[in-house]
């Protein structure tokens, strides 16, 4: 019989190595986040900025530097929140999606030059998201609380109910008069 070329220890080492790489990338992103924020200083204090790749025009702020300052002030927390969402192991991590959505809406309104009320109307866009996420997270919390704090296991309760119904049916079948 041929040996399995993929040994369990090799698989565990590969997973651990991958985990170390991902953790290192996350740590580096968190460490350089202040430097990423201050990249706005490299943009000119003029209404337009032209490069060979793209052109940025700031009509509302009248300065590309100010626009990039606002953008970085929203983009860096958004990136950090997304990293937190994907690396969080707590039961409530879905709640992190609410500030993620808020920052995403703020970035959209910042980029969209026709919108004049930045950081004012995004809360109304968040209401449908909150109406979905909050009950979902509360449902998870109730299930965990019932199981781990109160010791209520719904699967075990269902099994007990099935057994009780089976016993009731068996006793009813015994007590039923037989047809002659």
UniProtKB/TrEMBL annotation:
Sequence intervals crossing the membrane: 20-38, 67-86, 91-111, 123-140
Keywords: Membrane, Transmembrane, Transmembrane helix
Name assigned to this protein: Uncharacterized protein
Species, as recorded: Sediminicola luteus
